[in-house]
Design goal:
The chain is about 30% helix and about 20% strand. By secondary structure, the protein is α+β, with helices and mostly antiparallel strands. The protein is globular, with a radius of gyration of 14 Å.
Length: about 130
């Protein structure tokens, strides 16, 4: 069965996309820790990030770097944090989280409730900053 992220890749489920290329997709988390929380995935479904072939693993991280620089330029923050947890969705993914405090990347804290309009506006800001 296809993961929820594969359904986003195929267009079955809408997402607030900030960047993509032939092999990767970056989109806003719909239940973010903070504004600008972005998920970066390979378009090819693979469950565990450390099972990726080395070249695909490296390419995913280089794509994530490009996206992180855009997130940091668009969202007021001190840094963009990176987390790979991999328990909630069986599809390799990287969390990019704008940080002003270390607690901003605490996945046990309550998630934000953000409207689709707010997500759309944030996605536009980030897209404009990605080179």
């Amino acid at each position: 069965m296809a993961s929820v992220f594969s359904k986003i890749v195929s267009g079955e489920i809408p997402a607030h996309i900030v960047a993509q290329d032939d092999h990767h997709l970056a989109f806003l988390d719909i239940t973010p820790l903070v504004s600008g929380h972005t998920l970066v995935i390979p378009k090819k479904e693979i469950d565990y990030i450390f099972n990726m072939p080395d070249d695909e693993f490296q390419a995913l991280h280089l794509f994530a770097k490009k996206v992180a620089l855009g997130v940091g330029a668009a969202i007021s923050c001190k840094r963009v944090g990176v987390a790979v947890i991999g328990l909630e969705v069986a599809h390799a993914h990287i969390h990019l989280v704008p940080l002003n405090h270390v607690g901003d990347i605490n996945f046990t804290q309550p998630k934000l409730i953000v409207s689709s309009d707010e997500l759309s506006a944030t996605a536009t800001l980030i897209r404009m900053k990605i080179n």
